[in-house]
Amino acid sequence: MNILVCVKQVPDTTEIRIDPVTNTLIRAGVPSIVNPFDGYALEMAVRLKEAAGGNVSVISMGPEQAKNALKACMAVGADAAYLVSDRAFGGSDTLATSYILSCAIKKIEKDKGDPFDIIFCGKQAIDGDTGQVGPSLAEHLGYPRVTYVTDARWKEDHLEVKREADNGFDRLRCPETVLLTVSKTPYEPRYANIKSKMAANRAQISIITAADMEIDLKRAGLKGSPTKVKRTFTPVHNKQGIKIQEKSQERAVKRLIQLMTEAKLV
Amino acid sequence: MCENTRDVWVYIETEEGKAKAVGYELLTPGRLLADKMRVRLVAVVIGDQVEKIAKKAIEYGADQAIVLDAPEYKVYNTDVFGDAMTALIKKYHPEGILIGATNNGRDLGPCVSCRIRTGLTADCTGIDLDEESGNIAWTRPAFGGNLMAVILCPDTRPQMGTVRPGVFKRPVSDESRSGEVIHETVQVRTNRIQLIEHVREMAESVKLDEAEVIVAGGNGLGSRDNFCYIQELAQVLDGAVGASRAAVDNGWISHAHQVGQTGKTVSPRLYIACGISGAIQHIAGMSESDTIIAVNKDPDAPIFSVADYGIVGDLKEVLPIMTAEFKRMKTGEQTDDNHGD
Questions:
Q1: Structure ipTM
Q2: What is the pLDDT of residues B185-222, one digit of tens each?
Q3: Distance to chain B for A199, nearest Cα, Å
Q4: Which of 3.30.420.40, 3.40.1050.10, 1.10.150.20, 3.40.50.620 is the CATH number of B6-183?
Q5: What's A2-219's CATH class?
Q6: How far does A38 lie from chain B, in Å, by closest CA?
Q7: Which of A237, A254, A259 to mutate to test the interface with B (most CBs of B within 10 A)?
Q8: Across the interface, which of A98, A231, A254 has its CB nearest the CB of B114?
Q9: 3 state DSSP class of B130
């Protein structure tokens, strides 16, 4: 069983602050982490490997620095890691990114002489929050896919997954090759230990550049991206609301209802 | 036959013959776009026995409806719906497509945009026409709601976007409106993923997206048991119960109740945030509510920056009083009616 997990290195968005003067994101000093949903996907992949044998590879697209994210994945169960990195890929939107990843995956499969049976992605990255790269990658590769998966288990001869639906969940039977995008799992990903961290630090990470694969560069990078960012802004919230402070909470609530009545809200 | 209609499409997602609310909601920005672009607004309805939904969409403002109505569309799956939508786009060549950002909508969107090789903007909260270029301007939050980006798709068509449920209000229905309903049939492949069973587990009472009043609790509740304060107030106001991510992560209430960036986006008439500090991720999901009341111990909590009315205090004290007062007003109204003087 060949399993591949796509991971993205992202800034920890819970640590992001807004510069009050320029009203822009302060990215300096914000720690980089493995996208949490990719972490859930990796844990699910490693559990499947442990149950049925095989190997788990991880792939990421990004700058050299994203090697750290791949090493973190190797410390918690990934067996091999690939970094897709090239200046020509900068500024790619979800369509271009998924196309580049599909070219890199085809190259890895060709080198190994063995296709990936299951490809995992997180349901979305916490920086872009688009959730589009996974499903688009499935389309480029021609894989059937299931999105928003919360659990995956081997049944006798097939993989069964649980998918979040708007009013509950679906249980689905997957074919032999499939791409899954993973939402929050009912279990937490495992932690690395000192030994696994040290081994991961020594591990080789293969770098794949544009020159290494068959790719139409017109479909990559900023120029190959159909969507363009026109502008960005930070949402400002400073409603001049009324803060009610009274001697007792009874009076505060009475005051609230009085104000709401005056505003014809009740 | 190929037609270059250049229309604006709104995809009306259905499930077991029922339309999801977001499809009708999107007819509001769809109408605005179509009028500004001087094209028709077309509702695309795919499902099983959905003729009445197509008619309803016209009453809500669509000029025309394109319908795929067959048993194979009863339940969503990527392969069949992806083929169906792609075939329709290749036939009619619309200018723009709005899709509700439900799990299924966010599954369908990238499948289709990838095949057509066009741009798709995810999870938008604002839609308008970029007057300068004549393109659709899609506004969406990124970085957990810390940053908003305006996205254009200048060179490829159709311009596609998924749009968050609960952001736009459903248009007013006008039963006198009429429009053509076109029935299509397209060739679709066999679904490669087999559905074993669909399990409904969400209580109907959750219904955050359709509630007029939402009472939401956060970390400040302190315990699962204290959610009773939220429930009692919600009950008196005929409202739904919401929660912040912290309350969900603490295991006090299910994810179905979560409001915010990774939960539901809501815009009820009245939103009462109790013990919710107001992280940007939460505010991203409720700041468009008509009236917001915040109850929080910390006078500097960011939730007060979006609140119309704030009460600084312990919710365990404040909420029972509010519940009692609103209950008294409710029964008081009835008593007044009975008096008749």
A1: 0.92
A2: 999 999 999 999 998 876 655 678 778 999 999 999 99
A3: 32
A4: 3.40.50.620
A5: alpha beta
A6: 15
A7: A237
A8: A98
A9: strand
